[in-house]
């Protein structure tokens, strides 16, 4: 939600908690939110399977897997926390761009 608010292209937003009727909903499953170690290399991995759903009939209009890998310079906790922040920010931008593009196509049909 914060990513869409910061982006500003979608003016009317709601969460599941508000239980409002919507034209489109964004759903998904978080498949990975982890740190991977391979030898001396360390990276953060976030993987999300996203779905854009039409509100009135719950039909899936589009789906896509997003994966962000953020290499870390060191394995200590502060670097890992920073890496998760960077990876989630980048993934959020990708998801927002995709959802806005797919949503514009869906609403034109």
Written account of the structure:
The protein is an alpha+beta fold. Helix content is 35%, strand content 39%. The chain has a 3-stranded antiparallel β-sheet, with helices on one face. The chain is elongated. It starts with a helix and ends with a helix. The model has no long low-confidence stretch (mean pLDDT 92).
Indicate the topology.
Blueprint: H1 2-7, E1 24-38, E2 41-54, E3 60-72, H2 77-108
Antiparallel strand pairs: 1-2, 2-3
| Helical stretch tally | 2
Q: What proportion of the residues is helical, as a percent range? A: 25-40%
Q: Helix/strand-derived class?
A: alpha+beta
Q: Which spans have pLDDT < 50 for at least 5 consecutive residues? A: none
Short recap of the structure:
The protein has 109 residues and is an alpha+beta fold.
Structural descriptors:
109 residues, alpha+beta, three-stranded antiparallel sheet, 2 helices, 35% helix, 39% strand, elongated
